């Protein structure tokens, strides 16, 4: 999966950290069905809270945007997160006796706090590109993981999770976000973005957010 031209460059620069995220033991446990249910539910409850703050980060992107097109794309993501992605968590947890009020009130794990507040700070202290570099591993990493796990969906009880991220709707979202990032980079950094003095810091933001994704999976496994 390439999702544009910027993402593969940032992914390459993140080196083995990217592999640690996308091939994490938690992911492999979903692939072959060996992930304990308890770990999956712990992850889902934390992920609901994660998505609350992630929605705030995309809303911040609306205020940091420079074009109507960027504003529309980010506003649509806020809407999709609040009204679609979170519903999946609510429904899966409801079937396990966990209400939405319980989810909203769940105490945030330190790894969760660290990740979402890092992303929000990237947006507050930086510009639209800083924020996009911090948001990209989450959105595009799940697209890559979903696409790889799709071939194994009939071997695992986590088929629904895999279907969500490997499905055409989500894969289209990833291509759209990749294209938006490419356009945002070209607009602000010109035709040779890798030569911009800002480039190393953007790649570093991407790698830091990727490290925080690894921490999020670790949290799911270890509680
Ligand atoms: C820890 C964690 N990382 C990534 C995602 C995936 N994700 C987060 S927001 C979004 C929609 C577009 O922004 C998607 C797919 C997640 N749920 N939890």
From TrEMBL:
Residues 16-221 form the Thiaminase-2/PQQC domain. GO terms for molecular function: thiaminase activity. CDD domains: TenA_C_ScTHI20-like. Its EC number is 3.5.99.2. GO terms for biological process: thiamine biosynthetic process; thiamine diphosphate biosynthetic process. The keyword Mitochondrion does not apply. It holds the Pfam family TENA_THI-4. Pathway: Cofactor biosynthesis; thiamine diphosphate biosynthesis. This is Aminopyrimidine aminohydrolase. It comes from Jannaschia seosinensis.
């Amino acid at each position: 999966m390439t999702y544009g031209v910027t993402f593969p460059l940032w992914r390459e620069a993140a080196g083995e950290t990217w592999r640690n995220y996308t091939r994490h033991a938690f992911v492999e446990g979903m692939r072959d069905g060996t992930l304990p249910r308890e770990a999956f539910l712990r992850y889902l409850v934390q992920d609901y809270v994660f998505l609350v703050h992630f929605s705030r980060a995309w809303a911040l992107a609306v205020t940091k945007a420079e074009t109507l097109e960027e504003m529309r794309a980010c506003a649509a993501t806020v809407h999709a997160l609040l009204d679609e992605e979170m519903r999946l968590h609510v429904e899966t947890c409801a079937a396990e006796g966990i209400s939405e009020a319980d989810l909203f009130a769940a105490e945030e794990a330190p790894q969760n706090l660290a990740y979402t507040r890092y992303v929000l700070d990237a947006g507050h202290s930086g510009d639209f590109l800083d924020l996009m570099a911090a948001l990209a591993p989450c959105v595009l990493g799940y697209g890559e993981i979903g696409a790889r796990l799709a071939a194994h969906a009939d071997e695992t009880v986590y088929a629904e999770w895999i279907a969500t991220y490997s499905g055409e709707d989500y894969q289209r979202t990833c291509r759209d976000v990749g294209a938006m990032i490419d356009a945002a980079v070209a607009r602000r950094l010109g035709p040779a973005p890798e030569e911009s003095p800002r480039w190393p810091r953007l790649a570093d933001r991407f790698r830091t957010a990727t490290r925080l994704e690894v921490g999020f999976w670790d949290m799911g496994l270890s509680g």
